[in-house]
Each structure stands twice: as structure tokens, then as C-alpha cells.
Amino acid sequence: MDIKVLIVDDHAVVRSGIRAVLDTKPGITVVGEASDGRSCIKKALELKPDIVLMDLSMPNGRDGLYTTSELLQSMPEVKVIILTMHNDEQYLFRALKSGASGYVLKSAPITELVTAIKQVQQGMVYLQPADTKKVIQAYLHGNAEDAVDRFETLTEREKEIFTLVAKGYTNKEVAELLTISVKTVENHKGNIMEKLKLSNRRELMEFAFKRGLLEFD
Q: Where in this chain does the record put each HTH luxR-type domain (predicted)?
């Protein structure tokens, strides 16, 4: 039986291009298209796709992450692959936290997208670019106990900020959520990195995995 795919993107040209290519691939059937989050939910309930290819940036206050979370609450059996131009770990981790099973760049060759669709349909998590898997591997093979001990040296405010940053929030978003200035967030981040002996975002993500703040269901 073919894998039924719903394409969600606010650009008609993008949807048409993806559909035209996928329609030539055996074992995959595009059952519909949606241009925003609201129509995605409606079409998914109507068409019952196996896989939803979800763009991150969409209008009307319902981006791909919000729509993914909302969709999976109604249809937990559906699998979502984020298809985006954002080659940034903060988006990748937020996508996985929202419940997505895959993350593929729009610049990837179509063969990679087809592979992602097939693997996700089989129950696997597919991440592209592949080097993001190193973050997960570092977590799985790292010293989790040491990570927990160092985390406890942070103040409560630092723990709050660390958790938000690890989940992909920007300095501005953290400042707004905690009602503090961006400068204060930056100062706290500096202290956090020093206390935890971290030097960059990748190491912060690895530490967050070890601490259990970022998990795959």
C-alpha cells in the first residue's frame, strides 16, 4: 500500500514542485496540499495521510511547530516531517520537541526526502543534515552523571534560562518570557557557559540531552 502524503507549505510553487516529483516515486501518493496550519488540520482529518510534510514558516500565527503539536493531539498516528530552509539546531530541536519525526532541508536532493518519508513511515526518526546526529550520539555516550552534578551549580534563574535556550528559544524570546532584558539574558548565559564548562551551542545541546531536558519520545 502506498504511503499517503500531505504537503503543507504557504508557497503554491513549492507545493507543486514537491508534488510533481513525489508523484513519480513508486510507493508514495500525494493525497493533498495545504497552505497554512488551519487548512492542514482540516485536510489531515479529511484525507487521513500517513506522512505530513510540514513547512516551518507559515502565516496566520500558526507556524509549522504549532501546527505539528496541534495536529498530533488530534491525530497521534500521523507522522510529521519538517521540510524547511532553516539549517539550525535550534529549529531542529524545537521541531522534535513538537513531535515531528523528521527534519529535512529544502535544499536536500529529492532522494533524501524520499528516504526520509520511507524511514519515518517505518517508525524511525530521520534527521538531515546528518551531522546533527552527533549531538544525540554524544548524549547517549556521554557522562550523564557529571552533567547532572554541574547543572546543580546553577542558580534557579540560570536553570530557567538554560532550559529555554536548550529548547531553541532566542535571547529575545527568553527575555520576553521571563520579563527581563536581553542584556540580562546574555549575562546569565555567559555565567552558565562558564559554570558548565561549555564553549558553544553544540556543547550546550549535548549537555541538555545528558541532563534529560531534551528527549525523544
A: 147-212
Question: What pLDDT is recorded for position 216?
Answer: 45
Q: What is the mean pLDDT of each run of 10 residues along the chain (217 residues)?
A: 94 93 94 94 96 89 87 91 83 80 89 92 78 52 56 90 84 92 94 87 73 57
User: What's the predicted TM-score (pTM) here?
Assistant: 0.64
Positive or negative torsion for Cα 51, 2, 217, 84: negative
Residues in Cβ contact with 204 at an 8 Å cutoff, skipping those fewer than 6 apart: 162, 165, 166, 193, 196, 198
> From CA 71, how far away is CA 66, in angstroms rounded?
9
**Measuring CA to CA, which residue among 34, 30, 27, 10 is closest to residue 19?**
30
Helices 89-98 and 64-74, axial angle in degrees (round to 10) = 20
| Distance of alpha carbon 21 from alpha carbon 120, whole angstroms | 19
**Per-residue model confidence (pLDDT) at position 140:** 47
Alpha carbon distance 48, 18 (integer Å): 19
Q: Give the residue carrying C-alpha cell 510534510.
A: 53
Strand partners, 192: none
Are 162 and 192 within 8 A, CB to CB?
yes
